[in-house]
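User: Run a structure prediction on this.
Assistant: Running it now.
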Amino acid sequence: MPVSPLFNDAFLAVDWGTTNRRVYRIEAGQVVATDRNARGVTAIDKEGFPAEVADIRARFGDLPMLLAGMVGSTIGWRDVPYVATPAGFEVLARGLGWIDDRTAIVPGLSVLVDGRADVMRGEEIQLLGAVEAGLVPRDGLLCQPGTHCKWARMEAGVVVDFTTAMTGELFALVRGHGLLSTQLSGDVTANEAFREGVEAGKRRDLSAALFGIRASKLLGQRDDADAASYASGLLIGSDVAVRLENGAGDVHILSDPSLGGLYAIAVEANGGTPHIVDSHAAFAAGIIALARALGE
């Protein structure tokens, strides 16, 4: 499908993840309406996406639509091939997967260097959008916490490399299954136990440190009320320590204040300077910039 000015005026954008979906109506380069729900790709049958898109248009306007995230994966509507880094908006625009003449899916990004493979879908819009909106510098380290935490290196405003850490998923697994599950039912807060976990995470001996949570209970060293915070600090601390081992500096964290605040503590503990950035504002700026690139 050729480059088109379809998205120059009003259009719809959907950040369509695994478990959640956020819809944006954009007019003249501004978000005028938005909605978030739990209709992620895993809640929809493969044959159900056309009806979902029709429903979105019925509620937000019969407009051209750009879809980003896991909707373009093997578990989504259509598997859209990744584009390789380095990549900016022009590269994404060339890699769009067109469903029809006014509905397109944004490709994800891939890295394959010296046998190291990595992929992302959806986060690329936030990364590039954060630069576009002036929320982060054109060169630097960006972090996107979540189930699968992304660490991206930006140069001259494009994504040149990134690494994915399964930090959030590991926490969910140890919290929901196995030896520690009964100890980790408490809330995670930025308390002293979390900070102790961050310090322990610097050693990056995760399997031993995780068992230490069990031993600390048996020997009366830590109350179970603090165990979840400690475990979260341990995993986040280890993740951050690896990323900053070759030198600390500014780390821009694209996240909500709660999760972003936990990563900020770990970044500071490892000598870095954290800056929390509104990830939703970054996505909006990114999708608007991509729409602009399609019309050029």
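The chain has a mean pLDDT of 93.
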